[in-house]
Amino acid sequence: MAVHRVRGAGLGFRRELIPDLKAGIPSAIEFFELAPENWAGVGGRAARELRSFTERYPFVCHGLSLSLGGPGLLDQTLLRRIKQFMVEHGIELYTEHLSWCSDEGHLYDLLPIPFTVDAVHWVAQRIRQAQDILGCRIAVENASYYVAPPNAEMSEAEFISAVVAEADCLFHLDINNIHVNSVNHRYDALEFLDRLPLERACYVHVAGHFEEPDGLLVDTHGAAVIDPVWTLLEAAYSRCGALPTCLERDFNIPPLADLTREVERIAALQNGGAGATDRRRRA
User: Fold this and answer.
1) Rounded Cα–Cα distance for residues 275 and 135 (Å)
2) What CATH number has the domain bearing residue 28?
3) Whole-angstrom Cα distance, residue 124 to residue 131?
4) Of the four, 38, 119, 236, 255, which is 20 to 30 A from 45 by CA?
5) How many domains, in total, are found in the chain?
């Protein structure tokens, strides 16, 4: 199957949206993203419906359960399933969270990795192993976290940069995660953005979140994107160009028309911030 190049503004592919998408895909949506764990090996009507979209639109695989920072063996069986799935549907980009989510079973949460030198080496060799199996470079995403990992030997941005450099992988920039962490851990989001390995950035996420009564922000992907996140996205484009950007919406999914307005806002920022600053940095 032919590979479609990912560009522009995209939307998370949800089963709930398929009926509306089959009726007509808004022009602002140039690609889709899915979790391969939810689709690889699926047959029947669901597989046929997915194929009808992957034949016409680029897709990105965004993993949920590889547990790159976990203590257990890397799931090579899962990686081989994902590789086959990507080949079958012409998908060229796979991204995963820079976190861990399993030990002797899945923990159903994304947990932070200690910011240590040993952890850099551990995660980097697992990323290299994943890249060898998939036959391509993957992109790792800066994750949200709610308790700072203990015994830190470096900052979060230094940790991310060290992992990306040692693994020789790409970087998946999540704008909402920066905002959530900056509020919860009380740091400046723009300063943090500037310390990230943006020269390796190839892909971007934006999403909404939930605010607890005590002010804690929770990365739910269940609400509309707020103004500070849009502002931070525009700042990111000014630094690394109008990279392909996906709107994540996993819960409380509104009508497609509402999601389309947010995708259109992504596209508008990309068009306004392209031109001279659109370096589209690729490693």
Assistant:
1) 33
2) 3.20.20.150
3) 11
4) 255
5) 1
